[in-house]
Design brief:
Elements (H helix, E strand, L loop, with lengths): L36 E4 L2 E4 L2 E2 H8 L3 E5 H15 L3 E6 L6 H10 L2 E4 L2 H9 L7 E3 L6 H10 L3 E4 L2 H17 L12 E8 L2 E5 L1 E4 L9 E2 L4 H11 L3 E7 L3 E4 L3 H20 L3 H4 L2 E3 L17 H19 L5 E4 L3 H4 L3 E14 L5 E7 L8 H5 L5 E3 L8 E7 L8 E9 L7 E4 L21 E5 L2 E6 L4 H5 L5
Parallel strand pairs: 4-23, 5-6, 5-16, 6-7, 7-8, 8-9, 9-12, 9-13, 10-14, 13-15, 15-16, 18-20
Antiparallel strand pairs: 1-2, 2-3, 4-17, 10-11, 17-18, 17-22, 19-22, 20-21, 23-24
Helix pairs in contact: 2-10, 8-10
Bound molecules: pyridoxal-5'-phosphate (PLP).
Amino acid sequence: MRAHPAGPRHGEIPADHTSFVPADLNELDPAVWPRGAGRSGGVMTLAGNDVRDLAMTYGTPFLAMDEQDFRSRCQDFADAFGSAADVHYAAKAFLSSHIVKWLAQEGLSLDVCSGGELRLALRAGFPPEQIALHGSNKSQVELETAVEAGVGAIVVDSFDEIGRLAGIADARGSAGSASTSNGSSRRIPVMIRVTVGVEAHTHEFIATAHEDQKFGFSLAGGDAAEGVRRIAAAPGLELIGLHSHIGSQIFDPSGFEVSAHRLVLLLKSVIADHPELAQTITTLDLGGGLGIAYTSADTPPPVDAMAKSLTAIVERECQAAGLVVPRIAVEPGRAIVGPGTVTVYEIGTIKDVHLDGGVVRRYVSVDGGMSDNIRTALYDADYTVVLASRSSAALPVRSRVVGKHCESGDIVVRDCYLPADLAVGDLVAVAATGAYCYAMASNYNRLPRPPLIAVTGGTSRLLLRRETDDDLMLLETW
Ligand SMILES: *Cc1c(COP(=O)(O)O)cnc(C)c1O
């Protein structure tokens, strides 16, 4: 890859980049597009809504979330993992008050990793005992808010935090149960985040003894065992589980196999040292990271296959270690919210750039970009894009979909094929933008964040409205 001074991610696509030319540019691969996506008279429909009508009503760009797709993926996870497991939706992938309500209706638990996510969940009425709070640097206020609300677990991430939480427990204990809004004098339930030395992504995983990252307590260095000792020594804390999170966009369960093996060995030694913890440590949390198809080349395993693998792995490891099999918890974010959302843009300019060897790349500029989807710039992510406002029988042209920001790395879809008759004013749709797109959106170049709508049964409604000029001025002190 030829590096740009601003960094490799601005570089040219590698010569061996394999972008295949789709046989039919109008096809919507069901593995990539929302369950309710289709075409009617050539025009893309989302849960029965014509995308041109949606663009008329809400303006462009907009994100459309197929509500039934989201709910059905919640159900897929609940069914696949069954009653012996807890499925926690990872809020950081995307959260809004409506999502909180849907999750509650579907019976899932919720992981949050900041006071902001926690307050939204509580305000939207999510049962606090089904919330777990994560984060590598939780503030005193975030911890107090979580304890006061009575969350189901705080996943501790540092010795500092154990000390802070023990202090909060002591203060509550000495003030008596009158200090708690829910009147409970229960110990604070905590899990410990263990850095197991596994880093997994798609088909590869790396297993090392040490891991050079900010999260968790190192297993190999003995910090995890010391963390357990300190929690056990704090009368106000109750250790209810061991947690690990090994990566993202994972297709292959073998990384989970290594992490579960290491967590189970830790559990065994913890129980040997602190027999009383055998009663309280009920959960082995394997984290999130289950992958989805961004393009037709991605082949994630079905949820039930992944669930069977993970459950079998934990059972086998516990039997080998002579332990009672604990509850399993998983924390999917992307796999639930990613596939059901598409972003629809209007094309503003089209420019053909001549590359070496007479090759042409068509730059198709849309009315959003890295402010509504930074994943391509940040992670070199791949996406699928199609012409949505009509079908076309024209030949495919090698194209790149770019945004309107003043930044050459502002790429939405790096390498794709779009029909040769693509025109200014056409609508294009980008698939699988539900996770880490709106959640990571910014106001770069002072663009307003787009609206996010829900589509279901031929109807649509706003979940989040478009930001206005007034919104963008709100912080100015003039
Ligand atoms: C990010 C994260 C998740 C969710 O990851 P996905 O790839 O969206 O499934 C789950 N658990 C923890 C601790 C995380 O940090």
